[in-house]
Write a structure and sequence with these properties.
432 residues, alpha+beta, Chloramphenicol Acetyltransferase, 33% helix
Length: 432
């Protein structure tokens, strides 16, 4: 990795986007069984050499530096930061043999938690499957990096980056005056408090029982993927596939709410936007995300084409008003606040709650991911943290020209019958 040694500092300040992930980490721990934990799994044809991989990691200064970071306990009005600790124990990769008839990731690995103040911020596991196959599972706390950062790090480990230079940390931005920061913050709040009204979030039923995330995946063939993209155009999508995919999910989620007795609901959906330069390999560390926000009223869900039109118009309006940039500025401004006060401010538009539905489209970043440590890659999947308890998360991603979907949910609020019903509804909306 071509990085400057000076970038690997003993102290690393969190960004506003990182601090928001810390808030989500605290929220997940309050309402669930683990923090804001992401997982990225790659499936390989062949048996990956665990000893060689461990040796590679322990000889790599970037992996050793990341492994040594711990989140510093924050005093009020002090900037939150990672600090480097001294450790002598080598980084270990835990190995699992999948039981016969269970060619998948062991359930216990989905229960694994990472406490950012005490634990290394990531862990690697190898799962050996039947028929000479391997799964490499990278688990990390989302405060450290976002999903694309995890992709870059894992691909770098497997010599799957090529000759692209990798940027470890973000460049320092020009600091705006406090007056300008306050102005941009007010712009964001004015947008969120549309017509001076609080946002009423369509929520799945809240139950007291806590549970781990469950995951349900869909994988479309190349022919099916091409058909979905053709349907995007037929529905009038002018700005790529994401508005169409979001519209399909919103129709299915709205129908799921009706199925569970919640009618005439308004959907509020935050959708992350990647702030990296297109095609860039980095920054690796940190969450380089802002958000677009969509309000969908019942009348917007009459037809797929109408929903796509509404989503695209709201997207255009927000881009013209520079809402994603203003939101990022607001997040940076709030960095010094104690987490409890920060949470009250962030959640104030939604009366102390977080959105039940979370959508993301990671795009085609895995299209060319074919080899890892010399072994063919047969699949690569993100298992996201669930956005909010009770929550429902759906992620679209491409792998080698095939569209994939991962749904994250807890059985306390959505059962397997609901998931099966949602899948059928989603397929109908995607294929017409």
């Amino acid at each position: 990795m071509n990085t400057n040694k000076q970038e690997r500092t003993e102290r690393l300040l969190l960004s506003g986007s990182d601090y928001f992930q810390l808030l989500l980490d605290a929220h997940h721990r309050q309402h669930g069984l683990q923090g804001n934990i992401g997982r990225f799994a790659i499936e390989l044809k062949g048996r990956l050499n665990a000893c060689q991989l461990e040796k590679t990691i322990n000889n790599d200064p970037i992996f050793c530096w990341l492994h040594s970071l711990r989140l510093k306990k924050q005093w009020p009005f002090q900037l939150p930061q990672w600090i480097q600790i001294q450790f002598t124990d080598p980084i270990r990769i835990k190995i699992f043999e999948a039981p016969q008839q269970e060619n998948c990731i062991p359930q216990e690995l989905f229960k694994f938690d990472i406490q950012p103040h005490f634990d290394p911020p990531f862990q690697l596991n190898l799962i050996y499957l039947e028929q000479d196959q391997t799964i490499l599972l990278f688990t990390w706390n989302h405060i450290l990096m976002d999903s694309q950062g995890a992709e870059i790090l894992v691909r770098y480990l497997g010599n799957a980056i090529g000759d692209k230079p990798i940027q470890l940390l973000a460049s320092k931005n020009t600091q705006l005056s406090i007056t300008e920061q306050l102005k941009q913050t007010q712009k964001t709040r004015n947008f969120i408090f549309f017509e001076k009204k609080s946002i009423f979030i369509s929520s799945l039923e809240k139950l007291d029982s806590k549970g781990i995330n469950n995951y349900h995946s869909l994988c479309f063939s190349e022919i099916e993927t091409a058909q979905i993209i053709a349907n995007c155009r037929r529905a009038g999508a002018r700005f790529g596939r994401s508005p169409f995919l979001l519209a399909a999910c919103m129709h299915s989620f709205s129908d799921l709410l009706k199925r569970k007795g919640r009618t005439n609901t308004t959907l509020w959906v935050p959708v992350p936007q990647n702030n990296r330069k297109k095609g860039a390999c980095g920054p690796l560390v940190g969450n380089h995300l802002s958000f677009l926000f969509y309000r969908l009223f019942p009348q917007h869900l009459e037809t797929m084409q109408k929903t796509v039109d509404v989503i695209e118009q709201q997207m255009i309006d927000q881009m013209r008003k520079d809402i994603p940039a203003s939101f990022s500025i607001m997040m940076d401004l709030l960095l010094r606040l104690p987490l409890w006060l920060y949470g009250k401010i962030v959640k104030s538009p939604t009366k102390g709650t977080l959105a039940s539905f979370f959508f993301s489209d990671t795009g085609k970043t895995l299209e060319d991911f074919n080899v890892f440590c010399g072994l063919p890659v047969s699949n690569a999947i993100h298992y996201p943290p669930n956005s909010s308890h009770p929550g429902f998360t759906i992620i679209f991603m491409n792998f080698q020209k095939k569209l994939q979907v991962i749904m994250a949910y807890t059985e306390a609020t959505v059962n397997k019958e609901d998931i099966s019903w949602f899948e059928s509804s989603l397929r109908k909306n995607l294929f017409g």
